Amino acid sequence: MAAEKVDPVLKERCKDLILDLDTLREISRRFLHDVDKGLRKDTHATSIVKCFVTYVQDLPNGTENGKFLALDLGGTNFRVLLIELSKDHFEMRSKIYAIPQHIMLGSGEQLFDHIADCLASFMKQEQVIAETLPLGFTFSFPLTQKGLTKGILERWTKGFNCSNCVGNDVVQLLKDAIARRGDIQIKVCAILNDTTGTLMSCAWKNPNCRIGLIVGTGSNACYVEKQKNAELFDDEDKGSGNVIINLEWGAFGDDGALDFIRTEYDRDVDANSVNPGRQLHEKMISGMYMGELTRLALEKFTKEGLLFEGKASDALFTRGKFYTKYVSEIEGDPAGVITSCRDILEELGIYHATDQDCFNVRYVCECVSKRAADLASTGIATLLNKMNEARVTVAIDGSVYRYHPHFHDLMMQTISTLVNPGIKFDLMLSEDGSGRGAALVAAVACRTQQKG
Ligand code: BGC
């Protein structure tokens, strides 16, 4: 951080955004406690970190092949994909469709009709409308799985809030919507979380891959656990002896476990979300909230006269107007350079910022993004220590990890500090987990089904 150029008064006021090592260790301790609770049969129901069993047991071995469809719902975009896997090779064609806000907040029937509509139009375009292809459904919300093709929605996150879905099997909701149309046939082979897809996509080439992480619109992680520790796993088939656990770590803190570090900005973001009191860990980490957290701090410091001589613009004082991508852009300038910061402030209608203002704004961005990286790193280090394997690759995807210029380095640093001696790890950008990963889960499912 270019902290030396930052106004010391403002720096002091940012202190509540900084987590020291002891604090991270305490968070790690609390998180581990919640993970263990989620895994155990007798405590699962009351656990905040759910540790859902995914029923994905076998990792890919590179021999998967065939033609697959995939659906990807849960980030900023909804995508339909057609994937062809062959040994060491994969080809993918995809199309992005918008999910308008009225559908995100409408009825479940509307949402799934829209999904089926997009799927049919894509199949037509790709000339596979007459085929019955296997499909992997990346559905990135908390699901209690009852098998590889059955997932009960526990709650919506990330701005979605469709009625009549919570408590229902989303694979069935999809099948019903397809049946209502009557013009396409599919075979749903698997429903999976984006973290699982990310892990699988990386494991295809990298056998050390054992953890999947998303730092995008939302945040969550999954990891490979021994079946005997996943007490809710009830499949007869022991497969590899392992099973992927979808932690749903976004909910960590919903019982107050993170209250000792939450700031007034966190409380404000939460109170103004569609799911107040929920996903509190996610709200401190992910891209859906990072810009707004920064804006709230900038607004406050302006009103206190610490920025822009106390006068900013309507935009800076308007909810949602400071985008998360601004944080990445501002920190993307080399230390001491303020070109992007100036451009962004002008976009927001602030033309009178001094160089000192720009250094200060950058510092606020750095505090918010470093805190996010520290929290994600604490979760990952906790898992690495728990798994206690000599070498683990962490597969990561999501817009924040991908586009923030220092997120990877910040995470490397913090995990290195927290991980037990002797454990080696690396962090790898996982390409297209929700697409390729979904096809791989479907393919592995087909392979094992054929075997059995
Ligand atoms: C969802 C997770 C998902 C994560 C990242 C969270 O809001 O609950 O299921 O993995 O976002 O997309």
TrEMBL record:
<dbReference type="GO" id="GO:0005739">
    <property type="term" value="C:mitochondrion"/>
</dbReference>
<comment type="pathway">
    <text>Carbohydrate metabolism; hexose metabolism.</text>
</comment>
<protein>
    <recommendedName>
        <fullName>Phosphotransferase</fullName>
        <ecNumber>2.7.1.-</ecNumber>
    </recommendedName>
</protein>
<keyword id="KW-0324">Glycolysis</keyword>
<dbReference type="GO" id="GO:0019158">
    <property type="term" value="F:mannokinase activity"/>
</dbReference>
<dbReference type="GO" id="GO:0005829">
    <property type="term" value="C:cytosol"/>
</dbReference>
<dbReference type="Pfam" id="PF03727">
    <property type="entry name" value="Hexokinase_2"/>
</dbReference>
<feature type="domain" description="Hexokinase N-terminal">
    <location>
        <begin position="10"/>
        <end position="204"/>
    </location>
</feature>
<dbReference type="Pfam" id="PF00349">
    <property type="entry name" value="Hexokinase_1"/>
</dbReference>
<dbReference type="GO" id="GO:0005536">
    <property type="term" value="F:D-glucose binding"/>
</dbReference>
<dbReference type="InterPro" id="IPR043129">
    <property type="entry name" value="ATPase_NBD"/>
</dbReference>
<dbReference type="GO" id="GO:0008865">
    <property type="term" value="F:fructokinase activity"/>
</dbReference>
<dbReference type="GO" id="GO:0005524">
    <property type="term" value="F:ATP binding"/>
</dbReference>
<keyword id="KW-0067">ATP-binding</keyword>
<dbReference type="GO" id="GO:0006096">
    <property type="term" value="P:glycolytic process"/>
</dbReference>
<comment type="pathway">
    <text>Carbohydrate degradation; glycolysis; D-glyceraldehyde 3-phosphate and glycerone phosphate from D-glucose: step 1/4.</text>
</comment>
<comment type="similarity">
    <text>Belongs to the hexokinase family.</text>
</comment>
<dbReference type="GO" id="GO:0051156">
    <property type="term" value="P:glucose 6-phosphate metabolic process"/>
</dbReference>
<dbReference type="InterPro" id="IPR022672">
    <property type="entry name" value="Hexokinase_N"/>
</dbReference>
<dbReference type="GO" id="GO:0006006">
    <property type="term" value="P:glucose metabolic process"/>
</dbReference>
<dbReference type="InterPro" id="IPR019807">
    <property type="entry name" value="Hexokinase_BS"/>
</dbReference>
<dbReference type="InterPro" id="IPR022673">
    <property type="entry name" value="Hexokinase_C"/>
</dbReference>
<dbReference type="GO" id="GO:0004340">
    <property type="term" value="F:glucokinase activity"/>
</dbReference>
<dbReference type="InterPro" id="IPR001312">
    <property type="entry name" value="Hexokinase"/>
</dbReference>
<comment type="function">
    <text>Catalyzes the phosphorylation of various hexoses to hexose 6-phosphate.</text>
</comment>
<keyword id="KW-0547">Nucleotide-binding</keyword>
<keyword id="KW-0418">Kinase</keyword>
<dbReference type="GO" id="GO:0001678">
    <property type="term" value="P:intracellular glucose homeostasis"/>
</dbReference>
<keyword id="KW-0808">Transferase</keyword>
<feature type="domain" description="Hexokinase C-terminal">
    <location>
        <begin position="210"/>
        <end position="444"/>
    </location>
</feature>
